[in-house]
From TrEMBL:
It comes from Volvox carteri f. nagariensis. Pfam families: PSME4_C (PF11919). Residues 190-279 form the Proteasome activator complex subunit 4 C-terminal domain. GO terms for cellular component: cytosol; nucleus. This is Proteasome activator complex subunit 4 C-terminal domain-containing protein. Gene3D superfamilies: Leucine-rich Repeat Variant.
Amino acid sequence: MTRTGPELQKFAREFHATLLVVRSLSLNTHADGSVASAAAVSAGGGGTSGGSSSGGSGAAMLAAALDALSAAAVVEVPWSARAAALSYAQTLWFRHAPLLTPEQLRNLQEVVAARLQDAKAEVRTLAAATLSGLLRGTAPEDVTALRNRLLEKAAALFGGGGGSRRRRGGDAGPAAAAAAASSPQQLQLEKLGCVAGLSALLMSCPYDVPAWLPPVLMALVRAAGGAERDGAIRGEAGRALGEFRRTHEPESLEDLRAKMDPDDWDSFTQATGTASYFA
């Protein structure tokens, strides 16, 4: 099929942006020094003489790969490049997490978390899946900080506090303040990003019921509830809750029930369609 001029220009832009990530896909810190040095140069990390240690070359390669990933994950590039960056982030973390410094791990998490409220649904989904994997190897204090930020944001966007019966009318104060501060489109992306982040927290513990789980679930219940008028947001929150329900056995759900307020448990079972089963 013959491409027109504009189509060729678009293809060239997408290819150039995606290349930032693809150039680093050959990253292999177990390669010999000459290969490592060449890869570092091709990724923009600069070269060294043949006497460089393989450890130094590996560190330079990792730094160059993280730089390329960050460049390809920004919103200005085509969404296909952003998706490629997130896919590569999974590979980079899985293969080289022990070699990354704590600061590099935090930077990688920030790059991924920034794409949770991407305008493209495919990128948001991939960001949530990538973040869930990163959280399993992230320092507990960093996970706690991220979780607290997401819960605070969820409280501002969807309301929070009090029993489920008091919530059914909607906690309009924080949500109204957030709506007044953002355009409708930006507010929608913030809500979708918050739901994606909460979903990543759930996916990071697909079978267990840690003590921090109930507040995360209730934030998603509120996002999926009738007080939220945006069907896309309710749908995303509902899918996250449904996936949680699918991956947890009855014994785990009974453990969850023991950790939740009765009103919150009632809201959760109604949101996941399991109220009659646990009655």
